[in-house]
Amino acid sequence: MSATVPPDLLAALVPDAAVLVDDGDGLVRGFNTAAAQLFGPGLQPGRAMCTLIGPEHRKALQALLAEPPADEPTQTVARRLPLRLETGAPAGLSPRAMLRVGLRHAGLRLWQFEELGRPERQQADWLLARFMRLSPGAPFALELDGTPARLRFTIISPGLCRAFGRDEHELAAPDFRVLPHVHAQDRDALAQAMREAALHLTDFHHEFRLMHPLRGPVWHEARATVEIDATGRPGAYGYLLDISARKRAEQQLEAMHAGLEQRVRERTAELEAKHREMERFTYSVSHDLKAPLRGLDGYSRLLLAEKRDQLDDEGRLFVDNIRQAARQMSQLIEDLLAYSRVERLRPTLVALPLRSLIDEALAELDDSLRRQAAEIRIDTGTLSVRGERRGLLLVLRNLLDNAIKFRRPDRPCQITITARPLEAPGGGTELTIADNGIGFDMRYHDRIFEIFQRLHRVEDYPGTGIGLAIVRKAMERMNGRIHARAEPGRGATFVLEFPPAAGSIGGQDP
């Protein structure tokens, strides 16, 4: 065989792409028509075989060419070498492998190439077409062409035609551009997003409105992956999904939120109006209702001072009862005002040192404690509680006052105040105030914290029945709780549980 073999002879011998390569220098000495179609015009006699292959595969091909020929007349290379042609491998076409045949003549070897998977490509094309028909979205391929202003489709699905309201021929036309069909308010943002994706080769995700010729603006979500093709040009591959139903739901939800916010504002305005009304009522109670009581007390004193000699013992008793009733009524009004203030309390919770607050509450009751020769024991260490100062002082004063008031007459008053951290989940602080007074039956535990509820006659133990209701309400406003343990004749212990150190719940003192 000569150093150059005619193509028609090779075509007759080998119908597949076949190239004769010189054993010594690796130059092409002949090829058939199938090889010319596969390699393109670059396949010419005298050209080095390795230069026809992409640079990333040249070393592997050179190693294969350098293998010495076998002694057998025919030798097949079992392993297949994936290659990319110098032309960049046209879409769907690339050499899958080479088969080396031991045909030897004039130092030549025959190399046989196979076109990469035509059946595979047909199967892939069929799957792609079926996917594009059945996909709920709109698959597409997009050529960026250097600038988002020149976006052009390269793969068009039926769903894409439905999204634009145009047929495939319109979308595939060379002068068709995407951006003019995007809502004017969304156009710049979409162009910028595509520009960023092409620049950084990042995945693309954007929501925008397409102007449908019949439906008008329709919201779509676009997701795509940006890649660079063999020529170095960026392209995007992804899908469009109609999200107009979701957008309508979001708009309805936003409208509901706006309506709810408006209702909250209206309700807040109503509550603030009622709060101001309660303030006016409190002012009226504090001044207008107490004015007659001050008159009763004043005139009854004048009566005793100026007409005492004209009154017998029964008359003086009547005047004393009037003054006592006036004082009782005044105290009741004061307690109701205190309960009203606590009811409206919107405290800002802060850390408060227990010992200093307890000392302040005891100082206010110093006269009563001295008269009863009360013994006070305090063991709180350096613990603090989360609360509001005025509310906590009100709680301490009421509980300490009750311990003094409900003492046993046959023994000195003893009050023990202790505190400890709570071990329950979340933590917190427990404060206990225990006395050795008359106690109460635990059957009435819940009753004693209700307003105007008393377990004893006013003649025996003075009071209005509001103090413990104030204590419970103040603890609730500070996110705490109160309960008691008691036994008749053996004293009572009130347990206050304060929340753990946490953020302020806002608001101001009334």
Describe this structure as you would to a colleague.
By secondary structure, the chain is of the alpha+beta class. It has four domains: 7-116, 2-Layer Sandwich (Beta-Lactamase), CATH 3.30.450.20; 120-242, 2-Layer Sandwich (Beta-Lactamase); 247-344, Orthogonal Bundle (Helix Hairpins); 346-498, Heat Shock Protein 90. It is 41% helix and 22% strand. The chain contains 13 helices and 16 strands. It has helices at 7-13, 33-39, 58-66, 118-134, 158-164, 168-172, 184-200, 244-307, 313-343, 354-364, 366-371, 389-405, 467-477, and strands at residues 17-22, 28-31, 95-105, 108-115, 138-143, 152-156, 204-212, 216-228, 234-242, 350-353, 375-379, 384-387, 414-421, 429-435, 481-486, 492-498. The strands form four sheets. Strands 6-5-9-8-7 form a five-stranded antiparallel beta sheet, with helices on both faces. Helix 10 packs across helix 12. The termini are far apart.
TL;DR?
41% of the residues lie in helices and 22% in strands.
Keywords:
510 residues; alpha+beta; Beta-Lactamase; Helix Hairpins; five-stranded antiparallel β-sheet; five-stranded mixed β-sheet; 13 helices; 16 strands; 41% helix; 22% strand; disordered C terminus
